[in-house]
């Protein structure tokens, strides 16, 4: 969707297993590649938000795991920034079907699952 390319060296392989693997990669690429691109765009927009509004280390983007972003946020800002992050993630690109982001707040990652 965003022009990402995937090279499939085994797509013309004589070995059936290698060719089948390349075919699966070709089928999965548009969905997985687009999801990765959308996540990266969302991370950029959320980072801009944090840098513009929260300059004292009150909000830190810690990591990305597949389709999740993990943050450290001061307790008194958690509810407020959660809504702002959710909006950025849901509006990073306009699709025919809206992207929905879920937000969890907890003292540790286990509480958020």
TrEMBL record:
It is an enzyme of class 2 (transferase). InterPro entries: DNA-dir_DNA_pol_A_palm_dom (IPR001098), DNA/RNA_pol_sf (IPR043502), DNA_polymerase_A (IPR002298). GO terms for biological process: DNA-templated DNA replication; double-strand break repair. Pfam families: DNA_pol_A. Keywords: DNA replication. Residues 1-111 form the DNA-directed DNA polymerase family A palm domain. It comes from the Bacteria. Its EC number is 2.7.7.7. GO terms for molecular function: DNA binding; DNA-directed DNA polymerase activity. It catalyses: DNA(n) + a 2'-deoxyribonucleoside 5'-triphosphate = DNA(n+1) + diphosphate. This is DNA-directed DNA polymerase.
């Amino acid at each position: 969707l965003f022009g990402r390319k995937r090279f499939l060296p085994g797509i013309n392989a004589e070995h059936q297993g290698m060719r089948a693997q390349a075919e699966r990669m070709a089928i999965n690429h548009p969905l997985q590649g687009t999801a990765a691109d959308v996540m990266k765009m969302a991370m950029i927009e959320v980072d801009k938000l944090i840098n513009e509004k929260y300059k004292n280390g009150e909000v830190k983007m810690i990591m990305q795991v597949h389709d999740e972003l993990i943050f450290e946020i001061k307790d008194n800002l958690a509810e407020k920034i959660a809504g702002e992050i959710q909006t950025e993630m849901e509006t990073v690109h306009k699709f025919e079907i809206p992207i929905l982001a879920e937000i969890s707040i907890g003292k540790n990652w286990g509480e958020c699952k």
